[in-house]
Amino acid sequence: MADYLSTWKSEPTYFDESAGKKLPEDGKRNVLITAALPYVNNVPHLGNIIGCVLSGDVFSRYCKIVGHNSIYIGGTDEYGTATEMKALKEGKTPQEICEQFYHLHKQIYEWFNIEFDNFGRTSTANQTEIAQDIFKKLHLNDRYVSGTCPLCKYEDARGDQCDKCGKLIDAIDLIEPKCHICSERPVVKSSNHVFLDLKQLSPMVEEFINQVTSAENSHWSSNAIAISKSWIKSGLEKRCITRDLKWGTPVPLEGFEDKVFYVWYDAPIGYLSITKTLLGDDWTKWWKNPDNVDLYQFIGKDNVAFHAVVFPSCELGTGDKYTMVKHLCATEYLNYENQKFSKSRGTGVFGDTVSDLGIPADIWRFYLLYMRPENQDTTFSWDDFMAKVSK
Predict the structure, then answer these.
(1) Beta-strand pair 239-240/293-300
(2) At what angle are helices 125-140 and 269-279 packed, to 10 degrees?
(3) b/e map 169-194, b = 16+ CB within 10 Å
């Protein structure tokens, strides 16, 4: 019992090179754990923390207690429109924004006693290398096509996805679109882009989803199963995976030198590149070892499509033998006093201020796990929080 308690109460410790590389071992259950990579420009709130990093941390600690050989990978998603917009608003470079918020994220998770084996980032040479390698293999296999680039009426929907209903949308389909920088109505222009041909990959993806969700030793949350099968039932369509941006992974294709990869394609590859930052070329012993490694991924429901359909499509389309997600653990949303968390509106409890409240991290960990939105949205309220932690 003392050993178990010491595991749960341990302070966060990140990878120590002197301890040697943690690699899969024969005769042991090898478990690869990931937490969804948050946009670096945002300060994580309580819903972000329980939805991904805290849930993954608890499972990682469980694995250690029962003797599994496991590594826990997390980090920040640093490329894309959100980072460029944040940099413009604050008069900084994207690199400066990433540096500032990466360390803020890491500080917050350390305060919550989240114990990663490596907490990395996507703006690295390893990310560029792996993302471009996967792209080249998909391109050679004709998984991409070249082309020229609303549901719930939510007024703050972005040009890629609605945060309210989760629908993936094209920017040109927005009702009353306006620029976040100048508030003017955007002008539609033609631009050549690269699309992931999900329709061509659909048979492989459907077979994978059906097999993994029906396997006795595989566990996907009910919402992950419902969302992924809904995508399959609706018919997979081509998805644009490039953008006209400066800040991102360059597209290694003639005629597209001025494009970067979009987060739908790029971000999940961050798990691989962060593992490579930890282990060097031995990253493949975790990520290309499906017979000897179980992959658990902790995400919010708004990330299901990327982890259940888009990223597996890329892995399957390369023809390489990747470690595919076996256990997809997706939470619903944690709201704040029946409202959405909003930093700009001052709604909610955010990681950069929670440590100033004088309430120990273990109290927060307990309550967030108690309120974990496993099967439906739940709500944080101060009255309920005080009632639960005062017992």
Answers:
(1) unpaired
(2) 130
(3) beeeebeeeeeeeeeeeeeeeeeebb
Residue 188 placed within a domain: no
Q: What is the pLDDT of residues 109-136, one digit of tens each?
A: 999 999 999 999 999 999 999 999 999 9
User: Which amino acid is residue 39, in one-letter code?
Assistant: Y
Q: What is the pLDDT of residue 346?
A: 78
- Sheet with 144-148, strands from edge to edge, namely 144-148, 192-196, 239-240
Place of tokens 């050993």: 3
Q: 369: domain range?
A: 2-18+28-141+199-234+267-389
The CATH number linked to 203 is 3.40.50.620
Alpha carbons 199 and 235: distance in angstroms, whole number: 7
- Residue 11 counted as domain residue: yes
CA distance 82 to 243: 12
Q: CB–CB of 23/41 below 8 Å?
A: no
Neighbours of 310 (CB within 10 A): 22
pLDDT digits (tens, 9 = 90+) for 273-307: 999 999 999 999 999 999 999 999 999 999 999 99
Please tell me the predicted confidence (pLDDT) of residue 225: 95
What does the pLDDT read at residue 20? 66
Judge contact between 48 and 93, C-beta under 8 A: no
Q: Which stretches within the chain are classed as H helix?
A: 2-9, 46-48, 54-66, 81-90, 94-111, 125-140, 198-214, 222-234, 263-266, 269-279, 284-287, 304-305, 311-318, 351-354, 361-370, 382-389
Q: Residue 274: inside a domain, yes or no?
A: yes
Rounded to two decimals, the pTM is: 0.86
Contact 193, 186 (CB under 8 A): no
Domain count for the chain: 1
Query: How many helices and strands, by DSSP H and E, does the chain display?
Result: 16, 12
Angle at 343 between CA 342 and CA 349, to 5 degrees: 85
Q: Is residue 354 part of a domain?
A: yes
| Residue stretches of the chain with pLDDT short of 70 | 1-20, 142-191, 391
Task: Quickly list DSSP for 276-302.
Answer: HHHHGGGGHHHHT-TTTEEEEEEEEGG
